[in-house]
Amino acid sequence: MAAPDVTDRRAAKAARREGNTVDGIPPLARLFPLGLQHVLAMYAGAVAVPLIVGGALGYSAQDLAFLISADLFVAGIATIIQSVGFWRFGVRLPLMQGVTFAAVGPMIAIGQSEGIQAVFGATIACGLFMILIAPFFSQLLRFFPPIVTGTVILIIGLSLMRVAAGWIVDGSTEGAPPINVAFAFGTLLLIVLIERFAPPALQRVSVLLGLVLGTVAALFVPGMVDWSAVGEADWFAVVTPFHFGLPTFQIASVVSMLIVAIVIMTETTGDMIAVGEIVDKPVNRRQLADGLRADGLGTVIGGIFNTFPYTAFAQNVGLVSLTGVRSRWVATMAGGILVVLGLIPKISAIVEGVPRAVLGGAGIALFGMVAASGIRTLAKVRFNNKNVLIVAVSVGVALLPTVTPTIYDQFPQWFTLIFDSGISAGAITAIVLNLVLNSDEMRRTHGGDAHMGAYDAVRGPAAAALVHPQAEGTGLIPTQALSDEIAAEQGGDGMPVEAPSIDAAERSRDAAATPPHD
Predict the structure, then answer these.
(1) Which chain regions cross the lipid bilayer (predicted)?
(2) pLDDT confidence band for 492 (50 / 70 / 90)
(3) C-alpha to C-alpha distance for 347 and 345, rounded to whole angstroms
(4) Of 123, 122, 68, 95, which is closest to residue 297 (Cα–Cα)?
(5) Which pTM was predicted?
(6) Residues 249-278, mean pLDDT to the nearest whole number
(7) Tally of CB atoms within 10 A around 513
(8) Inter-CA distances, 457 with 46, 196, 211, 331, 397, Å
């Protein structure tokens, strides 16, 4: 059996031969459906924020339609800037941009007290702030070793499951209707069957095919597909800047949005690192700064064109992982499709008709792949007791607002801005715990500890015996014998001894350049 790094190199060579690289351009016959797949994966999330904010501010159906068109139009432009890049703007990876949910609460509060013009003014200030501090924020990359990045990516996937569940429930206050659950898991089953039995060309668009087939099936169920808005929608609409009036800049509003900017940059950093790991092109500090500048520029354009702050969409990171398509030009095509959707409301209405339950089924696969990518990154980590604790506490803190969304309702707004987002809360927790538990002094003092912590009973000798290769009968063998055997296998330093391979020298060089806790 080939060593893992040999297998990775072979896979990389095969990808280059097929043109499946970050900079490779797939044929147009594949490029369009792959881009459309990204649009369908993000569409519901992309239009949700203008619907929520506009509805809270009491806007008419016509104004809501304009907000949605503006959102799609700017999302396409921001995606093209991020994926194509120019000068020092754009990470040049397959990332999709969309309006962030982190700004929903502050924007509603600003809009209700100061008006929508203050929201757009604060959005422009937020974007300029992100552009200015991007080079300094990128220096934080050293705080994102694999123990942190893997944990953050895992948290992103787990946190997004609430979005998939929300699509399946589709606004019901009494749980998900059984028909919705049936269509969600039917769509998921279709995606799995396509991945298992379809030719490789169709496997690349498995999510798109699942969505299309799920929607076609839903046509036979009365009320599942609502395309009534298609006939009422215009064929063409122009997105004009400052449609609701010139922006105003209120100090309190701007300050609250600057806090949102920090949250956005934290989430985007995790997404960029995640997609870099997935496409085997890890981001460096300069690329990270370029990507954060692109976020800021997209946000500035958003404020000018009557929409809101933009960030990388995590659900599309899962799509990259699921399909294995690495080309950034697929994201560029998706950006072009979004621009067209923003200019042709009738087409937007067609896409909007995809049942939420069908989207929920696809979301289970997409968001699960994000979590799996985090686990893959964590596989690089040497798990001593401290690293186990870092992952455990970070995931626990991140999931609190996911399982109980009202947990921080009685806290100040500045606190909820940070901790209501499980992604930013988990990322901050992982960074702080890594600095505290894996400092140079701690590594020198406790780096060789082989004992199991009290919180780590699941890895204790009794539990290990259940899966020990020499266990017989019930799977239990004498604890002392197992402990001695484990100690021998670990070489006395608490870490497994790697078997030599043909690439041992290369791994030794990598290990020399990597801190023990990474």
Answers:
(1) 40-59, 65-86, 93-110, 116-137, 144-169, 175-194, 206-224, 244-264, 329-351, 357-375, 387-408, 414-437
(2) very low
(3) 5
(4) 123
(5) 0.62
(6) 80
(7) 8
(8) 43, 38, 43, 44, 20
